[in-house]
Amino acid sequence: MTLIAGLDIGTSSVKLAVLTSEGAVIARATASYDTVHGAGGIIEQRPEDWWDAACRALADTGMAHRIDALGVTGQMQDLIVIGADGRSLRPALLYSDTRAGAQHERLRASIPEWERRTGNHQDLTNVAAKLAWLVEHEPRVLPEAAQLFFGAAGYLAWRAGGRATCDVTTASTTGLLDIDARTWLGDAIEASGAPADRFPALVGAEPGDALAGTVSPAAAAQLGVRAGIPVAVATGDAGSATDGLVGSTPGDAYLYLGTTGWLAGVTAGAPAEPSPIHSLVLPGWHHRLRIGAVQSAGSAAAWARRTFFPDSDFAAVEAAVADRVGDLSARPLCLPGLAGERTPVRDGHFRGAFVGVTEATDAADHYLAVLTGVAMGLRHAAEAMQIHQTRIPAVGGAVASPAWRQILADVFDATIVTGDAEDPGCVSAARAAAEATGLGGRIRPLLAPGAVVEETHPGPARSGYGRLLAAHRELYPALAGTFHALAGMSPQALPDE
């Protein structure tokens, strides 16, 4: 029996799944590591901890010695600096590290058409700014670098014995990828002060080009696998999550509802210009993974439960609103971005708002308005991405809410499907390894058609949402000036009661 391992190096742990070439998962394991948080937006991890966690996870399965191929995915937009001895010269600056604000502003002013050439809005988390920060604050590090990596998967595959690579999806997140020239963006590298000859090779020129090499004898002894088995670099975590859940062909899309929320979908071709929708290159360059994210999803719902049903738990609130889900008569429109917004506008000054409250509006209406506001924000993302699915898988902790699933079905006028969606990144990494090595192509996405799922179908309220969506979309520009004015007011400037 052929066994393929998929590793996903996440924000807090490595996840591992061992699959047969037919797609059956026969073992799972996880191993965690620490994250260092510091003043000024510092968020770091040690790359060696990723490696140690991968070794522990493989050992925990008890079958590492039987694995025939290894696929790796993981967090993107990191900065990993490796010295001549193969060790990291400093902890990795993670994708969420925000220390490089000043460097970002300098790069924005110095790189011609930066956002158009990279196909994305650039903010202070980009890797180019992180490189510039190192040049200015730790000037001895980059001159000593033997190799740079921009994603955890590329580092781990290299340490296992493969060549130094970066998949094009991860490269899309760095601010360093020229989507027209299909190579690293020379202007951004020069402006950052980074050594271009230390950059990893791009992989993803075509589907299946993910093979990084084979596991070395030294690495095999640590990982517990056989020396010489192939190791493949899958797309970065956002791409692998999509591929592992629904696939990677145009039209494949899914919804995620956690603390934040997003709609991720595969589209043919790139958008005409950068927008609040993230656009990541997929292998082959012709397709894009587009992600429309809302800042507050589960966090907004939790706030609404505390505020409007302070003495009730999740189950009690669901029971209280069950008969009201389809009643829009007294439900106000809601902007749910309690801490800024990312889609359909990207603006940190946005806050939550209710519009259209009447005397008939009660606690249930307010609570359901928040769920509806999140769903509408995601629907606006779908319109911007030109994704019009009639079947949309939904994952994340918040999809446990029957009320929210029904609202999503009505707002999207689509069947919402839920089911077993455990470790999609691992499944995708195994799929990439199987494809790259010719070991078999029967590992299917977890929620692809044919999977065992629960379905939530649109109800009568969908026609009412069709009329409300346009009015909801108009609230964003209508209230932008108000939010910015409020953000500029100090407490002393507010009128006395």
UniProtKB/TrEMBL annotation:
Transcription regulation recorded as keyword: no
Protein name, per record: Sugar kinase
Transmembrane domains' residue ranges: none
Record GO biological process: D-xylose metabolic process
UniProt source species: Microbacterium lushaniae
GO molecular function: kinase activity
Domain (Carbohydrate kinase FGGY C-terminal) ranges: 267-434
High-level lineage: Bacteria, Bacillati, Actinomycetota, Actinomycetes, Micrococcales
Similarity field: Belongs to the FGGY kinase family.
All residue ranges annotated as the Carbohydrate kinase FGGY N-terminal domain in the record: 4-241
Recorded superkingdom: Bacteria
CDD domains membership: ASKHA_NBD_FGGY_CvXK-like
Keyword hit for Ribosomal protein: no
Alphabetized UniProt keyword annotations: Carbohydrate metabolism, Kinase, Transferase, Xylose metabolism
Pfam families noted in UniProt: FGGY_C, FGGY_N
